[in-house]
Amino acid sequence: MEKEKISSKIIKKAFKASVPVMTGYIVLGMGFGILLETKGYGVLWAFLMSLLIYAGSMQYVAVDLISGGASFAAMALTTLMVNARHLFYGISMVEKYKNTGKAKPYLIFALTDETYSLVCSEDENEKGKKKYFFLVSLFNHCYWITGSVAGSLLGSVITFNTKGIDFALTALFVTVFVEQWKSTKDHLPAITGVLVSTICLLIFGAESFLIPTMVLITFALAALKKLRREADEK
């Protein structure tokens, strides 16, 4: 990333864009922190996991893996399955993150679903876009850490039934899907994703459908893009 100072205008723009993510991440992070606390892992665990892992849904899954004494192999395989989507949509960020300098490793690390959505919506020719990418990534990361720590602290002083709290992550994905649906008139990619996911769920089952789903969605969207390009050329 360039060594020039980051202007207040870029900071305000990145913060404003990240506010919807903040509202979700604070709540979801708190859910994770509370869940982790109920398993006997304190605020330091919540802080370090959110700082160094920063994997949203995988952190929720990791709570049961850690508390259940899962093997390293089981953790590695589960992580691959849960975060397989990053292998596919991360490829599309190669050009966007080109020439980002020392910030590139962090930008890659901090690329969550919500950050990806904000980064992709940025104009390719917009001045200061690389600084914007970094700030959006940093803000979102900070929101998640803040929520996790707050949830852990809250869980240590308040005891209540936490059953179903991990459903908060599913709720966020539904919210993001609805927001994306409302923001565009082209619903074919979204419909394709839902159909492919449903078919794979029925065929492979809830435990194994994620990777086949991501592979098939990638091929389906690539084929769809090719067909549209050919139609435009005609």
| Separate helix tally | 11
> Structural class of the secondary elements?
mainly alpha
Mean pLDDT: 83
Q: DSSP strand (E) fraction?
A: under 5%
Give Rg in angstroms.
Answer: 19 Å
**Main beta-sheet strand count, sense and barrel state:** none
Order of helices and strands: HHHHHHHHHHH
Low-confidence stretches: none
Domain module count: 2
Question: Could you characterize the architecture of this molecule?
Answer:
By secondary structure, this protein is an all-alpha fold. The chain has two domains: 8-176, no CATH class; 184-234. Helices cover 72% and strands 0% of the residues. The protein contains eleven helices and no strands. The protein has helices at residues 8-38, 43-52, 57-67, 72-82, 85-89, 104-109, 113-120, 129-157, 168-183, 188-204, 210-233. The chain is globular and about 65 Å long.
Q: Short summary of the structure?
A:
With 234 residues, the protein is mainly α. The chain has helices at 8-38, 43-52, 57-67, 72-82, 85-89, 104-109, 113-120, 129-157, 168-183, 188-204, 210-233. It has eleven helices and no strands.
How is the topology of this model organized?
Elements: H1 8-38, H2 43-52, H3 57-67, H4 72-82, H5 85-89, H6 104-109, H7 113-120, H8 129-157, H9 168-183, H10 188-204, H11 210-233
